[in-house]
Specification:
Radius of gyration: 20 Å
CATH class: Mainly Beta
Strand content: 35-45%
Shape: globular
Number of domains: 1
Oligomer: single chain
CATH architecture: 6 Propeller
CATH topology: Neuraminidase
Number of strands: 24
Largest sheet: 4 strands, antiparallel
Length: 356
Amino acid sequence: MKKTFIVVAILIPQLVNQANAQTIESLMKELPSYFSILTTWGVRPEWDEKSENIYFLNKLVGDVFKINIATKEVSQVTSGFYHGGIYRVLCLSNGDLLLAMGSNIFDATNPEKDRHAGLGLYVLKKENPNKPYPLNAFCDEGPAVSKNSMKIAWTLQGQREIKAGEIYYDEGVPRLKNVQTIISYRDSMAYMRLETQDFRPPLNEELIYTHYWGDEKDQYYNSQVFGFNLITKKTTKYTDLSNSYNEAEGIFPDGDFMVIESDRHQPMEERNKYKLDIYKLKLDGSGEVERLADFSTRYFNRIKSDNPVVNKTGNIIAHQFGFQKGAGDGRGIFLLDLEAYEYSRNFGNGPSHSDY
């Protein structure tokens, strides 16, 4: 017994050091064939309106880049103007970009200082990427955009209210109209937070968002996926698993499913530690989910799969190679081929993923 213990004690630090030395490419060799590497750098992917390119940020607060799926050609999108850091990029249905930007003064000692302090919303026109147009609206965290209309929604500073509006062009200048507060938790308990995610296609009558709640130590401990119907004003709870993290991410084009980040596969003592993976959630109120990746258990305490977005045909998910040390933090973008995944699942070529 003593000899066995000594051998294990020696091997464990060696294995940890080897694992920490691995690159994305070497980790990729261990994954099922339905995953592929798109980039080995960058965060927060977003499909363009034709699903031919993916926009992404080079870092959590940085510049916008674009990569062509077919050619892998990379180009910088926001090099034509100065700014204090871009936090989010989303593609509008007409191909223009919605940017969430911080103040003009960047603080390298606290790069994410504006994340919850009010990010300005701007439109960057596709034909003129050198001039962002302010919408005179400010959000906390990422806004939501419709995939087939010019509707947008955003969470106000403090993350307790959500507004919605519509972008229109006045002699070529983007502006907002029909702005209204659609959800308010101002009068509820102090430790509740909201974050917009997507309008549900094809009708755009429902806004999918994440509802967080906790305590004074952690206001995001519990999170569940909700929907708010803009016509009936009805709220629907799509996930209902206490003491777990379930954040809405990319929606499928048919509106029947969306991808979420969740730690429901972790034991209780490992939850709320950013040990997440991506799941496919059925938006019928059943709460039925299917786990699509196992990064957080395959590479325990190191890597997660997060920030998933779905292309316009619903057969490819772009997601982030995330670090288990904070929200949105990671490096590199993967593609998950859903058709190859389903083939593997049905015919047993490759590891199976349990449903939760």
